[in-house]
Structures are given as C-alpha cells and as structure tokens.
Amino acid sequence: MLTNKFLKLQSVYFRLLGFNIFACHGDSWILPRRTIGSIMSVLRFLPLTAAFCLQNMQNVDQLTDGLCSMLIDLLALCKFGLIIRLHKDLVQLIERIRQLLHRESRIANYARIIEEVNKREQFISGLYRNCFQLAAASACMLPLLRMFWSTFIRSASAIGEVQPELPFPSVYPWDNRGVFNYLVAYVWNVAAAFGVLLPTVCVDTLFCLLTHNLCALFRIAQYKMQHFVGESLDDTLSNVANILPLYQATLDMCNTLNRCFRPLISVQFLVASLHLCVLCYQVSANLRRPDVLFFAAFTCSILSQIYLYCYCGECVKTENAQFATAIYDSDWHKTGCSWSAIGRPLLLSMMRAQRDCRIDGYFFVANKQTFLAIVKTSMSYVTLLQSLS
C-alpha cells in the first residue's frame, strides 16, 4: 500500500490556494476565488513597492530594501502563473507517479524504498515551509517590536510621537500615523506576505515531492535490475520486460517534469542572483540593527529555495546514472541468453542511463555547481553595490 506521507504537506497548502491535486478525474481548480484573492493581494501591493523604489532611487539602502520586496512579489506571481496554466498537467503527472508507486508498493522491499524517500521528502518540505514561515512571521512582527521598543522602553512619554513602521517598504496615498490608516496598511502588508507564502510553498515543495518520487522509481528499477536473473530463462526474460518499461516511464515523467518547470527554474535562478545580492547588501548594512535578524532569515529562505531546486535536480541526475551501475553489478553474465534477447537491451539501457537526465532552466542546469555559481555571482554584485553606496 502506498505510504500515507505522499503529498501530505502539499495537499494542505494547495487546498488553501484553491486546488485539489488529488483530483485525477475532473477539474482540480476547485475554489478559484481563493486563488484570485491571493493573486490580488500581491498585485495590489506591487505598485506601492514600485512607488517606494522610484521615490528612493538616490538612496541605495532604501532602494535595495524595496527591490527585495519587489523581486519576491514578482517571483510569487510567476508561480501563480505556473499553477494556473499547468495545474491539469501537474495533476496528471502526480496521478501517473501515484499509480506506479501504488503498483510497486505491493512488494515489501519496494514499499520500504518508497516509504524512506517520502519520509525524507516530507522532512525537507516541512523544513523548507518552516524557513519561509519564519521569514514571513519575522517580517510581520519586526515593525511591531521596533515600535514597542521605541515607545514603551526608551521613552514612555513619547507615545503620541511614535513613527509608524510596516513590514515591507511601500508608499501609501494616506497618512499612516492615524490608528485606522495604520491598521489598514498593516493588514495590506500581511495579506501580501500570505499571498507570497502560499504559491512559494506549494510550487517548491511540489517540485521536491515529484523529484523525490521519481528518484524512488529509479531506485526500484535499480533494485530490480540487480536481481533480474530468475530461476529459469522465461523468468529472466519476463523480469527484463518489466524493468525496462518502468525505467522508460520514469524517464518520460522526468522529461514532463522538466518541461513544466523549465520556465520557472530559469526565472527562479535569474531572480535569485539579484535577490541574494540585495539581501546580502542589506545584511552587511544593518549588522548593528535589529533588522539584521529579518534580513538574515530572508537570506536563508532564498538560499534554501535555490538549493532545493539544485539538490533535487542533482538527485534525479545521480539516480538515473546509478541505473547503468545496477546493470553492471547484476549477474547478466549468468543468464545464458542470446545477445538479441538480453545483451542488446541491457547495453542500450546502459548507454541511455549514462546520458544526463537533467532538470534545467534553459540556460541553467539544476545542480550543486549552479548553486555555487549563483552564490559567487551574488557576492560580486554585493561588492558593486557597496562601491556605489
């Protein structure tokens, strides 16, 4: 039986966003109002941040602060677009993987592989979700803590002179020194943070789940290949006839996954370089201020975001290459079968496995080398910003 950890975290967050990713028959977009409401919470906030950036073009500190908010909003809108445009394709891909996993989980050894992989995936996805929730919560709470500190700790007599502070840099057509106006602006900020958090967690953890379960199918194919020699010639031929279609189906699903996520990965990695640049600059500029805690948490969340894609892409590449090793480690020389019956299919499978099965974003391959390259590029941008300031 398929593990109950499959899509456990993702299904909750997709339902909050208005989607049912288990809906293999029928429309998976069950509550469009939720989705549209989340999109509008980000779209309505984006002009306020753009106005803040335009207003502070000459101030590098303020400008980079505004750019942090703008970049995360734009990336969230891209993920909204991916979900809406490809939700049917993603649901079909999930259903194909689920059916294969359900079929293979009837065998105890394969069920253990599936259980282990999904347990690790849910741990990584949960850690990733907590990282982003911490960044969002710190962004929303930090202005209140700063206002409390300045009003009630430093100068209790200056309660009427407190300056309103908001989670994200933005400009409003009203004066936020009034209590009602401030509450409206604050709720506006929190709604935007929630609108960014939902698609980010949904899309990124879904990518993590899909890649991990494809890796599980690769591992099952490896295990089968290492033990494909049966008691009789017919058993051996039957085992090979079952293994190779499983491997080919997994490769096809990897290609489908790559086709769905390729535009997003391209945008993700481009934006991440700029994002890390402005965040690292903000961390270096606020080392002695409480804001450094928020920018440090934000930097960790962006690093975890790009590392998640690079790590999962590296896993898919590695597990595919291990299939060739599994063929080599098997007892193929003991089969006694003809070249055309066993030798040729195994050789062709080894040649295919030695080619990359990669997850890429047109110009970027999702692997650990790309992650290091993005971090190095961001550090060089930070040096440029520091020279300008």
Helices and strands in order:
Elements: H1 8-17, H2 32-43, H3 46-55, H4 60-104, H5 108-154, H6 179-226, H7 233-285, H8 291-329, H9 339-353, H10 368-388
Percent in strands: under 5%
Radius of gyration: 25 Å
Largest sheet: none
Which stretches are poorly predicted, pLDDT < 50 over at least 5 residues?
Answer: none
Count of all domains: 1
What structural category characterises the helix and strand content?
mainly alpha
Apparent shape:
elongated
Kindly state the mean pLDDT as a whole number?
84
Helix content: over 70%
Total DSSP helices: 10
Q: Please provide the ordered H/E string of secondary-structure elements.
A: HHHHHHHHHH
Total beta-strand segments: 0
Report the end-to-end length measured between terminal Cα atoms. Answer: 60 Å
Oligomerization: single chain
